[in-house]
TrEMBL record:
Annotated protein name in UniProt: Sec-dependent nitrous-oxide reductase
GO cellular component terms attached to this protein's record: membrane; periplasmic space
Gene that this polypeptide is encoded by: nosZ
Lineage of the organism: Bacteria, Pseudomonadati, Pseudomonadota, Alphaproteobacteria, Rhodospirillales
Subcellular location: Periplasm
One Pfam family per UniProt: COX2
Length: 651
């Protein structure tokens, strides 16, 4: 079978030869094909995705997990799921939200002082160097509670959550500038930027959109809120964004819908949002010079809102950094081509994508060739002065990704349930393929970087309907792997997505990822620093002060030290545990009965569990990872003696 993977012509020949001669188990290949009702084409597709044991995937994909508040990591072309990365939601396997270190990360994501245990993750972005994925960091936004999560790809752990100080709803994040100077986030539904109440009658004056540029410090691996800024935008529902690259580096683009500024409310005797938001013929693409905006902020031209630097619309217009271009109604994706020369916008209610030319936009700005202004004084460039070409693709174009071949793009067609392949330089459709069903985003390998890798495309379908074994009314979504290496797109594989609704996925060549297999001894994986409470085997100890017991322990095959911890009813008990293993994949877990504790201690990691021992009793603790033949013996007891009783000799 190995030969099959190498060359399709040779594979086809081999296949016909081997039909009768190859026996696998009790049957020949021919018998097997008959029994499972498989065609030769099916076998070819299988051979293109099948990965024998121990084999590696060529690409790793990072999918947002939608309502699950997590991310999903899977391989391409095998479509095997490797891992979830918990970001905004507790996840016990990884101890996320169960150890003190990760609780601190989750606590960074408090909104209005409230702990949130979920997020609506939409768009992951991998950090870039000169516009190419560099495999160091991953960013993901939360649409419901405007936040960005930062994941370090050396251990696939979330290390930071930042809360947007001026937004109440967002969508256009996370997108990075070509050297990850900034992580972009835009609003969705407008609201007052100061977070205060304003009546709907004051919508046009008090409600606003915004775009935030979060400053990323690569050395520290952290977003720096104090060096980040926003630009105030009109109360249009802002949607997706993308950063320019190459010639358009320094600019960003975001589209918007409901530029009617319509506020529905059947309760108020008004037609619903969707009616009022469809009155105009076009919406508005926003074109922003972020490099100049950053200089203006440095020069003190911003005002503070909730302690955060915001450039007003007025300043942005005066300084010439904000422009609008009419775009197809109800747009969705806005995607900059790998060479940075074109900006492709899909309009959900349209049948064509609009390919805007960056050169033409710049020429119009230079010549001050504006057709009008919006109600906030922002200059509008006439659509025909900015347009390169419109390509009729089919109904409901949404998102666009790029091929390794120049001028070749793929756009999802939501209404038609298809992917269209086309030449965006010439404006020519090249191929179309049906998917199942109702595609949202799509992803090609490194397909939004300056060097897309081609080869595969994944269709992120919103509906699966009849594609899988029924598992109840809530269906998994269907990610369909498509071979794009030839002229015709070929469907290879359907993967049910078991966790939430991925909106977008990014895939990176596996050789760019260098994940570690162990931590430097005694690491707090969330701060990425030496954990102050880590200890070496032999120096374990228990510190006691009135009302408080602190345990400094280790885990190594096959014991937990200490094995008995005795405390008094009412004590606060904190376990600081270090996995002393150096061997690959020797993770130990740590669970205590009845206290909602589970830690994941990978080799070298230190994590802490804090409980209040408020009920006398006997509480077994144990290792939750099957780590050796004596795994079941990795156990111990937390003894909580009644208040006022004397400590036993052993404690
Ligand atoms: Cu689902 Cu990008 Cu949030 Cu489109 S978004 S489909
Ligand atoms: S025992 S290796 Cu936990 Cu049933 Cu299984
Ligand atoms: Cu350690 Cu099981």
């Amino acid at each position: 079978m190995n030969l099959l993977l190498k060359c399709s012509a040779a594979a086809a020949a081999l296949l016909s030869l081997s039909l009768t001669s190859t026996a696998f188990g009790a049957e020949t290949l021919e018998q097997l094909m008959k029994r499972r009702n498989l065609t030769q084409k099916d076998l070819m597709a299988a051979a293109k995705t099948y990965t024998p044991t121990g084999g590696r995937d060529e690409f790793l994909a990072f999918a947002s997990g939608g309502q699950a508040g997590q991310m999903i990591v899977y391989g391409v072309p095998s479509m095997r799921i490797y891992k979830y990365i918990s970001v905004f939601t507790p996840e016990p396997w990884q101890g996320f939200g169960f150890d003190e270190e990760s609780k601190k990360v989750l606590a960074q994501g408090k909104v209005d002082g409230k702990d949130l245990t979920w997020g609506d993750t939409h768009h992951p972005a991998i950090s870039e160097t000169n516009g190419d994925y560099d495999g160091q960091y991953l960013f993901i936004n939360d649409k419901a509670n405007p936040r960005i999560g930062v994941i370090n790809l050396h251990d696939f752990e979330t290390t930071q959550i930042v809360v947007n100080p001026i937004m109440r709803s967002e969508h256009g994040g996370a997108f990075v500038t070509p050297n990850t100077e900034y992580v972009i986030e835009t609003t969705q539904y407008p609201a007052p930027l100061d977070g205060k109440y304003a009546p709907l009658e004051e919508f046009n004056d008090k409600f606003r959109g915004a775009i935030t540029y979060w400053k990323f410090n690569r050395e520290k691996g952290k977003i720096e809120p104090e060096n980040s800024f926003s630009i105030e935008l009109p109360p249009y529902s802002q949607d997706l964004a993308d950063a320019g690259k190459g010639p358009s580096d320094g600019w960003s683009f975001n589209n918007s819908f409901c530029t009617e500024r319509y506020v529905g409310g059947i309760e108020r005797g008004r037609p619903p949002f969707e009616a009022g938001c469809s009155a105009n013929d076009t919406d508005l693409l926003h074109v922003i010079n972020w490099k100049k905006a950053a200089e203006l902020v440095k020069a003190g031209k911003a005002t503070k809102i909730n302690g955060h630097d915001v450039l007003s619309i007025k300043t942005a217009v005066e300084e010439g950094i904000l422009f609008l271009i009419p775009e197809s109604k109800s747009p969705h994706g806005v995607d900059v081509s790998p060479d940075g020369k074109y900006i492709i916008v899909g309009g959900k209610l349209d049948s064509a994508v609009s390919v805007f030319s960056f050169d033409k936009i710049m020429a119009a700005i230079k010549d001050k060739k504006f057709s009008s202004k919006d109600p906030y004084g922002i200059p509008i460039i006439d659509m025909k002065d900015a347009l390169h070409v419109q390509v009729p693709l089919g109904l409901g174009p949404l998102h666009t990704q790029f091929d390794s071949k120049p001028c070749v793009a793929y756009t999802s067609l939501y209404v038609d349930s298809m992917v269209a392949k086309y030449d965006y330089c010439e404006g020519k459709v090249l191929d179309k393929i049906s998917i199942h069903y109702n595609i949202g985003h799509l992803m090609t390998m490194e397909g939004d970087s300056v060097h897309p890798k081609g080869k595969y495309l994944v269709a992120l379908n919103k509906l699966a309907i009849d594609r899988f074994n029924p598992v109840g009314p809530l269906h998994p979504q269907n990610h369909q792997l498509i071979d794009i290496s030839g002229d015709k797109m070929e469907l290879l594989y359907d993967m049910p997505v078991p966790l939430g609704e991925p909106h977008y996925v990014v895939a990176i060549s596996q050789d760019k990822l260098k994940p570690s297999v162990r931590y430097p001894y005694g690491t707090d994986s969330r701060t990425e620093q030496k954990h102050p409470q880590s200890v070496r085997p032999g120096s374990e100890r228990i510190d006691r002060s009135p009302g408080k017991v602190e345990v400094f322990g280790t885990l190594i095959r096959s014991h937990i030290t200490p094995e008995i911890v005795e405390v008094e009813e009412g004590d606060e008990v904190i376990f600081h545990l270090t996995n002393a293993e150096r061997a690959e994949d020797e993770t130990h877990g740590f669970a205590i009965n009845a206290h909602n504790i589970n830690l994941s201690l990978e080799p070298g990691k230190t994590a802490s569990a804090r409980i209040v021992a408020d009920r006398p009793g006997v509480y077994p603790y144990y290792c939750t990872e099957f780590c050796s033949a004596l795994h079941l013996e990795m156990q111990g007891y937390l003894m909580v003696r009644p208040k006022g009783t004397k400590a036993t000799a052993a404690s």
